[in-house]
Design a protein that fits this description.
Layout (H helix, E strand, L loop, with lengths): L3 E6 L3 H11 L3 E6 L2 H10 L4 E5 L9 H11 L6 E5 L4 H9 L4 E4 L4 H12 L2
């Protein structure tokens, strides 16, 4: 069985490092720290799942805009999971309504993260 290849689009190096450490024992984790890096990686290789931070800093587009561009400009159907600190129950519904395949809140707990990734991959 091949390992899951995951792209994590996250501008915060600490958050990227933590997620990589949590998942790298069981998945191939590729980190993109900018939207332009993410688009290059998406053009270079295929991914099983994309985790996308909603609040990308440094004047970048937000995660909702990036998700739309991935779908429209690159025509990629890979599941995209919103990663955010917005933790209210209605936030989940909002992100699903915006076209995300799933939603994970920060701070990230390993067991919940793996469960949600598996749920998303098995839809």
């Amino acid at each position: 069985m091949s390992r899951t290849r995951l792209l994590y689009i996250e501008d915060d190096p600490t958050n990227a490092f933590v997620l990589d450490r949590l998942l790298s024992p069981t998945m191939d984790v590729i980190i993109a720290n900018t939207v332009s890096q993410a688009f290059l990686k998406l053009k270079e290789m295929e991914f099983d799942i994309i985790l996308l931070d909603i609040n990308l800093g440094n004047g970048q587009e937000d995660g909702v805009q990036v998700k739309s561009r991935i779908r429209e400009e690159l025509n990629i159907k890979t599941p995209i999971v919103a990663v955010t600190s917005y933790a209210m129950h209605y936030n989940r519904e909002s992100f699903i309504d915006l076209g995300f395949d799933n939603y994970i809140t920060k701070p990230i707990e390993r067991d919940i993260l793996i469960e949600e990734i598996n749920k998303t991959l098995n839809k």
